[in-house]
Design a protein that fits this description.
Blueprint lengths: L1 H15 L9 H17 L8 H6 L12 H6 L7 H14 L12 E4 L14 E3 L2 E4 L9
Antiparallel strand pairs: 1-3, 2-3
């Protein structure tokens, strides 16, 4: 589990650290990105069988893409930024279900600055900071 927490913390850091200092984002933005990874893990399928696999699945969380500038930071043994410690705490509490799912079951998101093809015609569940969240995978009980 420690490896999953570390990878989720790095994913949160890479995807949402810029939201932390913002009034509309803050800690909730970090938690929400963690929620999406955990929701994908709980879907038991295509996304991966561990949280680490879910986070590093190609083309899913852009911070892990080879050409993304965040990847170089995430691949370091230690991330010295104090904000990483906050991301680590958020990852731990999200994985342990100590914090609620702020995304209402979402398994996808994008920033307000883009409009990806997969989001067209989809109804957002919630917006947290500059991220818009969606639930695209049906839950098992809905199948």
């Amino acid at each position: 589990m420690k490896n999953d927490i570390d990878i989720l913390a790095r994913t949160i850091y890479g995807e949402a650290r810029g939201e932390y200092g913002k009034l509309e984002g803050g800690l909730a933005a970090l938690i929400a990105v963690g929620n999406v990874a955990v929701n994908r893990y709980k879907a038991n399928g295509w996304y991966g069988h561990t949280i680490g696999e879910v986070c590093r699945k190609p083309w899913q969380f852009s911070c892990w893409n080879e050409k993304d500038p965040n990847r170089k930071i995430l691949m370091q043994d230690q991330i010295a930024d104090p904000l990483f410690n906050i991301c680590y705490q958020a990852a731990t509490k999200v994985i342990l279900d100590e914090w609620p799912d702020l995304t209402k079951g979402s398994d996808h998101y994008h920033t307000i600055s883009i409009n990806p093809a997969w989001a067209k015609g989809q109804k957002p569940k919630v917006r947290v900071g500059t991220h818009i969240f969606y639930q695209l995978t049906k839950k098992k009980e809905e199948n």
